[in-house]
Design a protein that fits this description.
Length: about 210
């Protein structure tokens, strides 16, 4: 039994029972494995859940980057593609995702079951921020640019939470939330009236 089997059986257990197994020993025994096999990879069910979430993030990134149209997307479109694809992937295991997200012991912004996903996403979005600054989609602001990835992570947690609690048909409200939140984020990250005002003030006070 390998790590993939353990993840599959665990997701199936939560989907069927809407709770975590009573113990690692019983869980492994019921799926025909040994307890020590679990501990070779994880310490707790919580760590296993974090790995499953991280897999979903990695699979999402890999999937969108393999699409032929991806390289032609703007940075805004790449972020939109990521969010829409992430939600589609999560739909397949919605009951698991809902239980896991709602029953995490740590605040998701600081990690929680998304603790591994946070680093995966940070690496992905940091590259897009660099690209956006180069293309001019994102303004390069002293002391702020390095915080952009963290701000977009907040947006990511917001979108996942919105979807978890969304009861609209086909999750239409989530689709709208993704579009509106990403558009707002890029309106703020791009050059705006505040930047123009600051540049003008610098010009007025600069020496000839």
């Amino acid at each position: 039994m390998d790590i993939k089997d353990i993840k599959t059986h665990y997701i199936d257990y939560v989907l069927q029972n809407s709770k975590r197994p009573e113990s690692i020993y019983l869980f492994m025994k019921n799926i025909g494995g040994e307890e020590k096999t679990f501990y070779e990879h994880y310490t707790t069910f919580y760590d296993l859940e974090a790995a499953i979430w991280s897999d979903t993030f990695k699979d999402t990134i890999e999937k969108i980057q393999q699409e032929q149209v991806y390289e032609g997307y703007t940075v805004r479109e790449k972020i939109l593609s990521f969010y829409f694809t992430l939600i589609e992937n999560l739909k397949a295991v919605r009951s698991f995702a809902t239980y896991s997200f709602k029953n995490q012991k740590d605040f998701p912004l600081d990690g929680g079951v998304l603790k591994e996903s946070k680093q995966t996403f940070h690496d992905f979005v940091s590259q897009l921020i660099t690209e956006g600054v180069y293309t001019g989609e994102i303004a390069d602001r002293t002391f702020l640019t390095e915080r952009y990835a963290g701000a977009i992570w907040w947006e990511t947690v917001f979108i996942i939470r919105f979807w978890i609690y969304d009861s609209s048909k086909n999750f239409e409200r989530t689709d709208a939330a993704i579009e509106k939140s990403v558009n707002l984020a890029f309106d703020l990250l791009g050059k705006n009236i505040a930047d123009a005002t600051f540049d003008f003030i610098k010009f007025l006070f600069s020496k000839n």
